[in-house]
Amino acid sequence: MANGVALRGWRAHATLWGGLAAFVVHVSLAFAVSSVLYRPRQVRTPVVFEVNMVEKQPIPLEPPPPEPKPEPKIEPATPAPRMASRRPLAKPPELLPRPNREVPPAPPGTEPPPPVFGVTPESVIEGESGVAVPVGNTLMTKDRTPAKAPPAPLPPAPDPNAFAPVADNLICEHAARVAEVKPDYSPEARRLQIEGQVKVRVAVDRQGNVRWSRVIKSAGYGLDEAAKQGAARTPFKPAHACDGRVVDQIITLTYTFRLSD
Predict the structure, then answer these.
(1) Domain with 230 in it: what CATH number?
(2) CA 251, CA 229: separation in Å to the nearest integer?
(3) CA atoms within 13 Å, Cβ hemisphere of 86
């Protein structure tokens, strides 16, 4: 019985203490929250800086050195013109015949004396003068008649032996071989068993002679030279133009080299 009463008393005290503890806890929490929410903000005091502006004095510049004055140019003194003293002419030279004076004719076979354009040496004295006077026959000129240009030289006469081939369309009878000369087979081509064909342009003149020959299709290995030698040894009949003249002509010959021949 006593134990039950004590147990109920303890429970009543425990409930009281628990409520008190809960109250204290709630009050503490409320105080902490209020202190956090309503904490006064710190006001920052602005910092004031004082700046003193001091004007910088300009540095005095040294004046530039004065430019040197150009030296005055000293021009050489021009000598004063020297005047020459002349004595008056004793007698003016007779340059032209007088109007009413007859000039005697010159004897046949003689040329008339040349005219004098200057003063005579006897009428001038020595001395300094700024005037130049011609003395003697200094201004005498030769015949100024323009010389006739020589006639243009005549063109040289055409050389009758010059080679002048005629176009094929003006030739009615072309140059042809009188006898065919077979060229020699070159030793190099025979040794290498080379066969080929060579075409040669041959210039045949009015006498049927070969003036020159030129290879236009080559076979090499000495066959070109053999063909040209064969053309040089071949006699030709000259070409005839349609008007009957004997003319020069350039023809083409073909030489075929075969080892079986």
Answers:
(1) 3.30.2420.10
(2) 16
(3) 17
Q: In what order do the strands lie in the sheet with 249-257?
A: 210-217, 196-204, 249-257
Query: Which of 9-13, 64-68, 149-153, 244-248 tops mean pLDDT?
Result: 244-248
Dump pLDDT digits (tens) for 73-100.
776 666 655 665 566 555 555 555 555 5
236 falls within a domain: yes
Show the DSSP H helices in 47-196 as ranges. Answer: 187-191
Alpha carbon distance 225, 215 (integer Å): 9
What single DSSP character describes residue 136? S
Range of the domain at 231: 168-257
Domain count for the chain: 1
Residues 103/94, Cβ–Cβ less than 8 Å: no
Decide if 79 is inside a domain. no
Which stretches of the chain are assigned E, i.e. beta strand?
Answer: 171-173, 176-177, 196-204, 210-217, 236-237, 239-241, 246-247, 249-257
User: Tokens representing 19?
Assistant: 């409520």
Range with the poorest average pLDDT among 46-55, 65-74, 252-261: 46-55
Q: Measured between alpha carbons, how far is 227 from 230 in angstroms, rounded to an integer?
A: 5
Residue 213 covered by a domain:
yes
φ and ψ of 122, to 5 deg: -70, -20
| The token pair that represents 18 in the structure block | 């628990």
